[in-house]
Design a protein that fits this description.
α1 runs parallel beside α5. By secondary structure, the chain is mostly helical. It has 11 helices and no strands. 79% of the residues lie in helices and 0% in strands.
Length: 255
């Protein structure tokens, strides 16, 4: 009973943890990441469309990660190379992604209906059986400790932290701030794209206007409440995922 309740949270937990972890890594490089919700929404649509058009949900994961990484690199480049507000750049990309996501998602809905009419067995969902969910939890723990090691024990991690704490001092010491932020943007946003894929194809496998909007901000809050710490993010992601998964059950219990 308890194990079933925990496993039921797995898809939401994986989605939020990946997005929150990616957000934390990117912000550690000194970039205010306000584009997260727009890119998350876009990648939800991209994941759905990729699974429909390619015919397999596994194609959606690398495509979504690449799309997200491109926006992460773009944001890092804009705020590092040009004297523009991090907030203005991030919010502009967010609204741009909202529009692109709608343009991608809506045609895919009609394509899905057409394919489903011809092949009723067509399915875009990722595996969510108990074994798959258990492997997801194991993969997240491994990823968390790998990320912690990357940030605290490697030269790249030290450079990322230096760019976040004092980019001018880092630059004076020979750190290429632009290159480090581009790398952090690619890594962080690829994780955000992966989170969007699991959100769409493992948790809520459908698409309609506004589907996924606002969940990027939840990942933002998860990362912020954990202090962008990879291990603590497991706890906060689990708490948020549990509340969202069992929100209606909790409502019934309190009425």
């Amino acid at each position: 009973m308890i194990l079933d309740a925990i496993l039921a949270v797995a898809p939401a937990f994986i989605a939020y943890y990946l997005a929150a972890l990616g957000h934390g890594i990117f912000e550690k490089s000194g970039v205010l990441n306000l584009a997260i919700d727009g890119v998350f929404y876009l990648c939800v649509a991209v994941s759905y469309a990729s699974a429909v058009y390619v015919g397999t949900p596994w194609a959606a994961l690398p495509i979504s990660m690449l799309v997200a990484a491109a926006f992460g690199i773009l944001l890092a480049f804009l705020v590092t190379q040009f004297p523009i507000s991090h907030g203005a750049a991030g919010l502009s990309l967010m609204f741009l992604c909202y529009g692109i996501g709608a343009l991608i998602g809506m045609p895919a809905v009609f394509a899905y209906r057409a394919v489903k009419a011809e092949n009723p067995m067509f399915d875009i969902r990722l595996p969510t059986d108990p074994v798959a969910k258990s492997l997801m939890f194991v993969a997240i723990v491994v990823l968390a400790f790998t990320s912690l090691y990357l940030i605290n024990k490697t030269k790249l991690g030290a450079a990322i932290r230096a760019c976040g704490e004092n980019p001018h001092a880092a630059s004076a010491l020979g750190v290429n701030v632009l290159r480090i932020r581009l790398i952090a943007g690619a890594i962080g946003y690829s994780l955000i794209g992966a989170g969007a894929t699991f959100f769409e194809l493992a948790w809520l496998p459908t698409w309609q206007q506004l589907h996924g909007m606002g969940h990027g901000w939840i990942a933002f809050a998860i990362s912020l409440s954990a202090g962008r710490h990879p291990i603590l993010t497991i706890v906060t992601a689990g708490a948020f995922a549990s509340l969202l998964t069992y929100q209606y059950t909790l409502k019934l219990l309190t009425t």
